[in-house]
């Protein structure tokens, strides 16, 4: 009887150990599976590259050719011109499903609970779901941010003027013939030159008025905040009339989004082509906007460790996760750097395993963007 009492606990312990196990296998290599707890996937990273361009349109003023004559302003163009500029570049990492890294989990007593994201990425084991940011692509629109030009608002005098025409009639007297002038008045439109001269005189008048306010020559003029407002309005009026000579620049912003999936053995990726005259152009035009992804190879030591201890390490059947690789990301145009950052790419890193005996009674959370371990409690 004593012998039976000694053996019985050992048998029970063996049964518990056999039941508490876990098996994780790639879905592409899983056959004749009768039951499983859940299927999850590892993420891979793609880049959303957001490029903001600004289109600058120069519209010459109607009196541009008289700018030097009446205001002494030289080198004013009389032709419309368009220039494009890169005003902002940003790169966002987007987590996507790696369809080659779907895993089937068969757990017997080791995993009490688990949490997956909506798209099936493993978020946590034996712990409650943690809040995380939604991963979405930004939507971009074209946005004008300059007033429209309306030069008609700058007219303060009538565009008409009185013109006197002189004709002559001949008067014959007894001894001589005389030509007598005859004057007739008519209303005509002022020439561009006349209007330019009037506008220049008005600009000078505004400047004189501003000078008198600033120097206190107007004794009965208000002071304090009122003076600041008056100067502000005088500056605005001068700017509007000055644009009749120096022209106006209209700006529009254009935003473009491109998606690039980095590959482990590739560094340069042509995102698109850019021209200062036309903006985004086809491949055979302009200059290339190039994304550069340089692998830091920080996980090289892990790779070497796994290779050197391949025979000694026990068979890995635990939860599969990734150790992401750090990369240097930059975007260049004609060797000019517009963006530079350090980012993490899971598909450049190493596939690792959580040992099945380690998982029991542990709360583990994962980074849903990289598949790396975030926390073990």
Describe the 3D structure:
This protein is α+β, with helices and mostly antiparallel strands and 377 residues long. Helix content is 22%, strand content 44%. The protein contains 6 helices and 16 strands. The protein has helices spanning 2-19, 67-71, 192-215, 225-246, 300-308, 356-359, and strands at 21-26, 38-59, 81-108, 114-116, 122-125, 143-144, 160-172, 177-189, 248-260, 268-275, 279-281, 287-295, 319-333, 336-354, 364-366, 373-376. The chain has a 5-stranded antiparallel beta sheet. Strands 11-10-12-13-14 form a 5-stranded antiparallel beta sheet. A 4-stranded antiparallel beta sheet has the order 4-5-15-16, with no helix packed on it. α3 packs antiparallel against α4. The longest helix is centred in the middle third of the chain and has 24 residues, at 192-215. Residues 1-18 and 131-147 have low confidence and may be disordered.
